[in-house]
Structure formats: structure tokens, C-alpha cells
Amino acid sequence: METIKYRNYILRNYTDIPQLSSLSKDEKEAIEVVGQVLPFKSNNYVVEQLINWNNVPEDPIFTLTFPRKEMLPKNHYSQVKKLLYADDEPGLKKKVNEIRMELNPNPAGQSYNVPALDGIRLHGIQHKYRETVLFFPSQGQTCHAYCTFCFRWPQFIGMNELKFAMKEAGLLHKYLLTHTKVTDVLFTGGDPLTAKANIISAYIEPLLTKEFSHIRNIRIGSKTLSYWPYRFLTDKDADDLLRLFEKVKKAGKHLAFQAHFNHPAELSTDAVKQAVERIQNTGAQIRTQSPLLRHINDDHVIWGDMWKEQVAQGMIPYYMFIARDTGSKAFFEVSLEKAWNIFRKAYRSVSGVCRTVRGPSMSADPGKIQIMGITEVRGEKVFVLRFLQCRNPDLVDIPFFAAYDKKATWFDELKPAFGEKYFFYQKNNQLKKNEKNTDIIF
Ligand code: SF4
After folding, report:
1. Closest residue by CA, ligand 1 atom 7
2. Do 352 and 425 share a domain, yes or no?
3. How far apart are CA 115 and CA 128, in angstroms?
4. Which residues sit opposite 135 in a β-bridge?
5. How many domains does the chain have?
6. Cα 295–190–186 angle (5° rounding)?
7. 344 Cα–ligand 1 center, Å
8. C-alpha 136 – ligand 1 centre gap (Å)
């Protein structure tokens, strides 16, 4: 395959993109204004091969990486615009930081998930579920392009107090040695595959030794297949990265590649198809996931097509998420009822091999909560829910109920059904020792 040089576009140079000449003055202004608050980055592969410029600004992949005016509340937009064009740099910086703090920068109690070792808080680790540790390598806290809906946007804006990251492989390994119930390590970000292969290797290879026999699954969460598939084809260390995946397999462990695809367009190029095949040839398995996003994929046909194409390429559909309550959520959100309807219509349109997917699921404070349906119990219309994951593993898979709410878009907006004061997991916690829902209890 021909080598293509990676070129990224950020606020400083985005006007170099020739295709932008088709945008209106207001659309260009929106990139400048919204881009002050939420991170912006795209690249030549996304611009040239994924976006259909005849369909801009509605094009789903354009909306996926380019800021649009409606992604900020009106008052925030006009405040930032005024300061930006007044060249008031200190005023702009102050206002932008205030707005960012209003946008719920670290949703779902993520800061509660940061554990400590020997009295030191490990700011590059999250340990929410007993079996799985998330690791945020410092060198992978960027992405090949930024998604406009990203729930990890504080990783990219230079506010270090909001960021999860660390580079000390030794601390990760020490933590894992003292937590032998952990079976899975998930490398996440940002996108850990923006780091060089030798850096990733320094974290992963020690986990292949006997000392870490309890670690069964090495998971990598990445959107690189979608935003820069050449990472697995022609980048200088592409082969080194794939050799590392092979080593994981040879060590008797599972390399689970969690690929992030939001739309079938991302699965359509020759480059992504070849990259998928090269990864699969190492023995790794690719599971796919995405949030449900208005303006991008809020249509059951899109999801059905996406799952079918993923399976045709040998991937395993894994999760449909509800977009988290942070950043530009108001632009992307759909009601929980609509999310469930889209999921089930898509689910029933595909064959059993695609029905490995779970959802729609909310990664909320107490755990991953799946909407199983809407029904009537004792004359009351309710949401039927269950934990797919929970801080307290004993509570996984027990159905529970929330009062039906037509407008709700996130779990926090729901109330227990049948006039109850608490959800069942809250009662459990209170019986134990008045713990907060966000406490890690294992
Ligand atoms: S690839 Fe993931 S971490 Fe990176 S911007 Fe998109 S959603 Fe955020």
C-alpha cells in the first residue's frame, strides 16, 4: 500500500483544508468559536477519504470531527465569540475555563475510580469494576482526530488537574501484582495507539510473564482503525505493533482490540479493511462499540448496516452506548426511549451473529446500566434496567425499574418506579455502611 503522510489539522492550520472553501462564513466561525472550548483536531485521511463534502455540514463524519455552532449553548457561544474577536486573551481564557467547568468535565464519578498505592494516588489508573483496570498511558493521551462528542475531552485541553495519565509502567505493574482479582487491563486514553510501539510494549510485555498469570486479557481501546488505519499498514512501526499483538497471543493471553466506529462510512475504505485483516492475523479479536449520537447515527438502519459490515469483516459487535452527560451532549443526545427503540429495531434487523451487541448502555456512577425495555408493571409504565457492570459485582444482572420518563436522556434524570425512594442498589449500600454510590467496595 502507498505510504501516506499523516497531516493533522488543528485550530492553527485548519484553513489549509482546501475543501473548507465550500463552508459558509458562519460555519467557519463556528469552528473557531467552539474550538476555543472543546478540542478540535482532524486529519488528511478523515478529510479526504471519510467526509462527503457534498453533504457538509450534515455529513456525519464532518459532524464527528468539526465543531458546529449548536455544540455550545447559545449564551456560551456569544460570550466566547465576543472575547475572541475583541482579542481579549486573558478574558477569553478565563471565560473558556469557566464554561469548561460547567460542561461536567469528568462525568460518572470517574475521579472516585482513581486508586492509591502505598498512599500515592495513581492518576493514570481507574479501577471501578473488580476484574478490570483501566490504564491511561501519558504517551497515548491524544487521538489521531478528536470526536466532537468526546466524553474524555478534558484529556486534550491542557487542564492537568482534570486529566488522567501516568507514564510509570512500574506503578501499574506493582498495582496489578497486589490486585490478583484483576483479569483485564484496558489501555485507554485518548488513544493509546497514538504512542509508539516500543512505548506500548514497555507496558504490555511485562504482563506476559508468569508473575502476572492472573491477567488474562489485554484490552486496547482505540479509534485508530477509523481515524488512521495506516497505523497498522505503513507507519514505520506498524509491524512492531502487530508483532506485539502476536506476542500477547503466544503468551496464552487474549488481545482484545476495542474498536470505536460511529458510522458505516468509517468501515468503507480499502485502508480500514486491510488494517482489520492485519490485526486479525495476529490472533487478536476486534470488538466494536459506539455511542448513539443525534446527527451522526440516530437511525436503526445505520446501526444494522454497521453491525452487519463489522461481522462481514470478522469483527464482533460489542456495545451501543448512550452518549455521556458531558461536553456537547445537548447537541448529540437522544431520549432513552428513542435509544431503546433504535437499538431493538436494529437488533431485530440482523441475524444472530450480530446479536453479540449489548445496549443501549449508560456508563453511569454506579455501573454500566442497560435499558432492557419499557413495559407496564401493576399499571405503571416503567423502564426495565439492569447492571451489565457494577461497582458491587453481586448486583450485576438483577433487573430493576425506573419510572417512565419520556424526556429523560441519562440515568441521573430517572427516579425509582412504584413511588420508591431508592433504587435497590442504593438500599444495599445503605445497609452495608452508608457508603456513597461511588465507593469502590471490593
Ligand atoms: S477517539 Fe475516543 S478519546 Fe479520542 S476524541 Fe474520540 S471519543 Fe475521545
Report:
1. 150
2. no
3. 9
4. 125, 187
5. 3
6. 110
7. 26
8. 13
170 found inside a domain: yes
Contacts 24+ apart (CB under 8 A), 334-338: 334/292, 334/293, 334/294, 334/298, 334/409, 335/406, 335/407, 335/408, 335/409, 336/360, 336/371, 336/383, 336/405, 336/408, 336/409, 336/410, 336/414, 337/374, 337/404, 337/406, 337/408, 338/298
Between CA 319 and CA 217 the distance in angstroms is: 18
CA dist., res. 263 & res. 433, Å (int): 45
pLDDT at 383 over 90: yes
| Residue minimizing CA distance to atom 6 of ligand 1 | 147
Give the tens place of pLDDT for each residue, 408-421: 999 999 999 999 99
Per-residue pLDDT reduced to its tens digit, 325-361: 888 899 999 999 999 999 999 999 999 999 999 999 9
In a domain, 85, yes or no: yes
Could you write out the DSSP letters of every residue in 86-102? TT-HHHHHHHHHHHHHH
Of the residues 75, 102, 129, the one at which a domain ends: 102
C-alpha cell at 31: 469552528
Is 371 buried (19+), middle (13-18) or exposed (0-12) by CB count in 10 A? buried
* Contact call for residues 148 and 68 (beta carbons, < 8 A): yes
What is the pTM for the complete model shown?
0.93
Q: Are 163 and 311 in the same domain?
A: yes
Candidate from 65, 106, 191 with most ligand 1 atoms within 8 A of CB, to mutate: 191
Range of the domain at 153: 110-359
DSSP 8-state symbol, 131:
T
In a domain, 154, yes or no: yes
Q: Ligand 1 centre from 147 Cα, in Å?
A: 5
* Nearest atom within ligand 1 for CA of residue 153: 8
| Ligand 1 mutation target, pool 150, 290, 321, most atoms within 8 A of CB | 150
Query: What is the chain's length?
Result: 442
Pocket of ligand 1 (CB under 6 A): 143, 146-147, 150, 152, 189-191, 223, 260
Residue 143 near residue 221 (C-beta atoms within 8 A): no
Beta carbons of 72 and 37 less than 8 angstroms apart: yes
User: Residue 221 corresponds to which cell in the numbers above?
Assistant: 481501546
CA of 65 relative to ligand 1 center, distance in Å: 10
pLDDT tens for 317-330 read: 999 999 988 888 99
Cα–ligand 1 centroid distance for 191 (angstroms): 7
